[in-house]
C-alpha cells in the first residue's frame, strides 16, 4: 500500500529525497501510476466515438478524472522521483507521452508546432514542444465529445486522431505500447493499491524545474494537452470558414 | 390486502421461479401498481409483460406464478441523419399508470422517444355480421335476405398492445428517467442535461423544467443521472447528479426549476479520497419511499437513505460491496465502475434491495440492520428450493462456501430489480434471465 502521509517535495530538498525514496522501493512510483491512469483515461475518451452516441455521463466522469490528474500534475509535475528500477528519465518519458499524443494529432492536420523552448533532455532528443501563448483561447479538447449537435467534422477529426494515437504508440516505443495494452490485469491491481490508497494531494512545492513545459494559465482551465487539441479545432474552424 | 412484514433477512425464505431466458439483454423491470403485472424492457426494444396467475386458494403454498401475458415491439432502431448517429431501440425505463378502466397503460422510453402503450384484453368477438362472412369476405348482397344483430361470442384471450401517444423530439441528450406524477395527468422525462414536463394527452409540447446545460459546453462537469416525482406532492420532484448530489425542486417556485429547494449532499470522507472518488459518488438511481418521507440513492458502492428534512447527510448508509473499493482501478479499466445499479423499496419501506456482481443481489432490513446476499443463477437454484445466503470473502482466509473477491464474475451484473408493491415477491434481472423470488409461505 502506498505510504500514507508521505509529503512530496521538490528536487531541492535532497536529504528528504533519501527518506522519500525508501518508501518507493516497494511499489511503482506514484507519478508513473498516475500517468498510466491519465493515458488510460485519454484512450477511453477517444474510443467514445462510435456509431452510437457516446454515453455523456461516462465521458464527463472520465474527463473530470483527466482534469483532476492534470491539475495535480500541473501543481507538482515538476517533482522528480526516481522510480525503483529505472533512472530518473523514466517517469519523465511517461509524462512526455501525453504531449506527444496531442502533438501528433496536430501535426497530422498540417499544423506545425512553434519551435519549442524546452530542455532537450526532458523531451527526448529531437522532440519539440510547442509553446502555448496566453493569446490562444483555451479550449477543452473534449468539446467535440459534449457537443451532440456539432458538425460531423469534429467526429471525423477524433477518428483520425484515434488512428494517430495508436500509430504513435506502436511506432514510437514498442515497450510503452506494451505497457499500456498488455498485462493490464496484473499491473492495474498494483495501480489499485497505489491509487485508491492515496490521500488527497499534498501542498504543491515551488516549481522551478522542467523549464520546457509551457506555462499554464490556471489549473482548471487548460493544460498544454488540451490547448493542443483546442488548436486543432481552431484550425478546422478556419479551414471550413465557420 | 394484508401485508405481512416479516424480517426478510432471517425468517423469510426466498424461492426461485425462473421465468426463462429472454432473447435479449433486459434493460428495465417494473411491477404495476397492483403487482399483478410485471413488465420488462430489453435492448432490442421489446416489452414483455408477465401476469400473475390468480391465487389458487386450494394450493396455498404459492401465490400465483407469473406467465407471459403480452409481448410487443415498443421501439425500433432509428437513424439520426443530421448527426449520422444511430438511436438505440433499447428500452431504458418503463413506468405503469394506475389502472382506471379495463385496459392497462404504461410509458416506455428509449434514449429519445417516450411512448404511451395501451394493453387491452379481448376475450370476445362479434359474430353474425350481415354483410361479411366469418372469415371477412363480403357476402354476395343478393343472398342477404334477413337482418340480424351480431352477438359477442367468447374467444381465446388475446392481449393487444397499441401505441396511444408518442412523445418525441424533446430530448437532445439520452433519456435516463421517466416518472409519472401523483396527479396521474403529467409526467417528467429526464435526459443528461434537461428535464421536461409533459401532459399525457399532449404530445406536441412539453415544458422544460430543469436545464443544467452550460452556455459553454467546455464547462460541462456534471450531468443528471436520475429523476423522480414525489409520490404524494404533485409539485415536488428530485433529480440526482454525477457528482453525488440530489436536488429537490418545487414546481410552484418558478417555471424553470433552476434553483433547487433543497440540496442533498454528503461531505466527502477525506480518508477515502482517490482519483475515483467522484466517479463512485455518481448516483445511478434515486427512489422515493412509498410514504414519501424518505428517498434512497444508489452510488457505486453503497445505498443511502435520506430523510427529506435533512440535507447534509443521509440517515442510513448500507455498503453493497465495500470489498470493491480496493479494486477501483481495475473496475475503471474494464468500465465496470460506470455500471448503473438500480435500487428499490419493499411495499412497507422496511427493506431496500439492490444488485451487485456475480449475479448477487443484496437486501438491507432497515429495522433490524441486518443484510443478506442472494444469488440469481440457474446453476445454484432449482425451482422452488430455498435460496441460500451468499458471502464474499474480502480478504484473508476464505471460509467454506465463501467466494473470494477475485473469483467474482464482473460480467454477471444485476442492474435491475423490482419489488412487488404489496407482497414479498421480487423480480431480479440478470443479463438475459428474469427471476422471480417469492417468500415461501408455510
UniProtKB/TrEMBL annotation, chain A:
Residues 130-145 have a biased composition (Polar residues). Pfam families: SERTA. GO terms for cellular component: cytosol; nucleoplasm; plasma membrane. InterPro entries: E2F-SERTA_domain_protein, SERTA_dom. Residues 30-77 form the SERTA domain. Signal peptide: none annotated. Residues 130-154 are annotated as: Disordered. PANTHER family: CELL DIVISION CYCLE ASSOCIATED PROTEIN 4/SERTA DOMAIN-CONTAINING PROTEIN 2 (PTHR16277), CELL DIVISION CYCLE-ASSOCIATED PROTEIN 4 (PTHR16277:SF6). This is Cell division cycle associated 4. It comes from Prolemur simus (Greater bamboo lemur). The gene is CDCA4.
UniProtKB/TrEMBL annotation, chain B:
Keywords: Repeat, WD repeat. InterPro entries: PP2A_PR55, PP2A_PR55_CS, WD40/YVTN_repeat-like_dom_sf, WD40_repeat_dom_sf, WD40_rpt. GO terms for cellular component: protein phosphatase type 2A complex. One of its GO terms (molecular function) is protein phosphatase regulator activity. Belongs to the phosphatase 2A regulatory subunit B family. This is Serine/threonine-protein phosphatase 2A 55 kDa regulatory subunit B. It comes from Prolemur simus (Greater bamboo lemur). The lineage of its organism: Eukaryota, Metazoa, Chordata, Craniata, Vertebrata.
Amino acid at each position: 500500500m502506498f505510504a500514507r502521509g508521505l509529503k512530496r517535495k521538490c528536487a531541492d530538498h535532497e536529504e528528504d529525497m533519501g527518506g522519500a525514496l525508501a518508501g518507493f522501493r516497494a511499489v511503482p512510483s506514484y507519478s508513473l501510476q498516475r500517468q498510466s491512469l491519465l493515458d488510460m483515461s485519454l484512450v477511453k475518451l477517444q474510443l467514445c466515438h462510435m456509431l452510437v452516441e457516446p454515453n455523456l455521463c461516462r465521458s464527463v466522469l472520465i474527463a473530470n478524472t483527466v482534469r483532476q490528474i492534470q491539475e495535480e500534475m500541473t501543481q507538482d509535475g515538476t517533482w522528480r522521483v526516481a522510480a525503483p528500477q529505472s533512472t530518473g528519465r523514466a517517469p519523465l518519458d511517461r509524462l512526455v507521452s501525453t504531449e506527444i499524443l496531442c502533438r501528433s494529432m496536430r501535426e497530422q492536420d498540417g499544423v506545425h508546432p512553434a519551435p519549442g523552448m524546452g530542455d532537450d533532455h526532458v523531451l527526448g532528443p529531437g522532440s519539440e514542444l510547442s509553446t502555448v501563448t496566453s493569446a490562444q483561447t483555451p479550449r477543452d479538447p473534449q468539446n467535440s465529445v459534449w457537443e451532440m449537435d456539432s458538425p460531423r467534422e469534429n467526429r471525423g477529426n477524433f477518428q483520425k486522431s484515434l488512428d494517430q494515437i495508436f500509430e504513435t504508440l506502436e511506432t514510437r516505443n514498442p515497450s510503452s505500447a506494451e505497457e499500456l495494452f498488455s498485462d493490464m490485469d496484473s499491473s492495474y491491481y498494483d495501480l489499485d493499491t497505489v491509487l485508491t490508497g492515496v490521500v488527497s494531494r499534498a501542498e504543491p512545492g515551488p516549481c522551478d524545474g522542467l523549464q520546457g513545459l509551457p506555462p499554464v494559465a490556471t489549473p482548471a482551465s487548460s493544460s498544454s494537452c488540451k490547448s493542443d487539441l483546442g488548436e486543432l479545432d481552431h484550425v478546422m474552424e478556419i479551414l471550413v470558414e465557420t | 390486502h394484508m401485508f405481512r412484514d416479516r424480517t426478510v433477512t432471517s425468517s423469510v425464505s426466498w424461492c426461485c421461479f425462473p421465468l426463462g431466458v429472454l432473447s435479449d439483454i433486459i434493460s428495465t423491470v417494473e411491477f404495476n401498481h397492483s403487482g399483478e403485472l410485471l413488465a420488462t424492457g430489453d435492448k432490442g426494444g421489446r416489452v414483455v409483460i408477465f401476469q400473475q396467475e390468480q391465487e389458487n386458494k386450494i394450493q396455498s403454498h404459492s401465490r400465483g406464478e407469473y406467465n407471459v401475458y403480452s409481448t410487443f415491439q415498443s421501439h425500433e432502431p432509428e437513424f439520426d441523419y443530421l448527426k449520422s448517429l444511430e438511436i438505440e431501440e433499447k428500452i431504458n425505463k418503463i413506468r405503469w399508470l394506475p389502472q382506471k378502466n379495463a385496459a392497462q397503460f404504461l410509458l416506455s422510453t428509449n434514449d429519445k422517444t417516450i411512448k404511451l402503450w395501451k394493453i387491452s384484453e379481448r376475450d370476445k368477438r362479434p359474430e353474425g355480421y350481415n354483410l361479411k362472412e366469418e372469415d371477412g369476405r363480403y357476402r354476395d348482397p343478393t343472398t342477404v335476405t334477413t337482418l340480424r344483430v351480431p352477438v359477442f361470442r367468447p374467444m381465446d384471450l388475446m392481449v393487444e398492445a397499441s401505441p396511444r401517444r408518442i412523445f418525441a423530439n424533446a430530448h437532445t441528450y439520452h433519456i435516463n428517467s421517466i416518472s409519472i406524477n401523483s396527479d396521474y395527468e403529467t409526467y417528467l422525462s429526464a435526459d443528461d442535461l434537461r428535464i421536461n414536463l409533459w401532459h399525457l394527452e399532449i404530445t406536441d409540447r412539453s415544458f422544460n423544467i430543469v436545464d443544467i446545460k452550460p452556455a459553454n459546453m467546455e464547462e460541462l462537469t456534471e450531468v443528471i443521472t436520475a429523476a423522480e416525482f414525489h409520490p404524494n406532492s404533485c409539485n415536488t420532484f428530485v433529480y440526482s447528479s454525477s457528482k453525488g448530489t440530489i436536488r429537490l425542486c418545487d414546481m410552484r417556485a418558478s417555471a424553470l426549476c433552476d434553483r433547487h429547494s433543497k440540496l442533498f449532499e454528503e461531505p466527502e470522507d477525506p480518508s477515502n479520497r482517490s482519483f475515483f472518488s467522484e466517479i463512485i459518488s455518481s448516483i445511478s438511481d434515486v427512489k422515493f419511499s412509498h410514504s414519501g418521507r424518505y428517498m434512497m440513492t444508489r452510488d457505486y458502492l453503497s445505498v443511502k437513505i435520506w430523510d427529506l428534512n435533512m440535507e447534509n447527510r443521509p440517515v442510513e448508509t448500507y455498503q453493497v460491496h465495500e470489498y470493491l473499493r480496493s479494486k477501483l482501478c481495475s473496475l475503471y479499466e474494464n468500465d465496470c465502475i460506470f455500471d448503473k445499479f438500480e435500487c428499490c423499496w419493499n411495499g412497507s419501506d422496511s427493506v431496500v434491495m439492490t444488485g451487485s456482481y456475480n449475479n448477487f443481489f443484496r437486501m438491507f432490513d432497515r429495522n433490524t440492520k441486518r443484510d443478506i446476499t442472494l444469488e440469481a443463477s440457474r446453476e445454484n437454484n432449482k425451482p422452488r428450493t430455498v435460496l441460500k445466503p451468499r458471502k464474499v470473502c474480502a480478504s484473508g482466509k476464505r471460509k467454506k462456501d465463501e467466494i473470494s473477491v477475485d473469483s467474482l464474475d464482473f460480467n454477471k451484473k444485476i442492474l435491475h430489480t423490482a419489488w412487488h408493491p404489496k407482497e414479498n415477491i421480487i423480480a431480479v434481472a440478470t443479463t438475459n434471465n428474469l427471476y422471480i423470488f417469492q417468500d415461501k409461505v408455510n
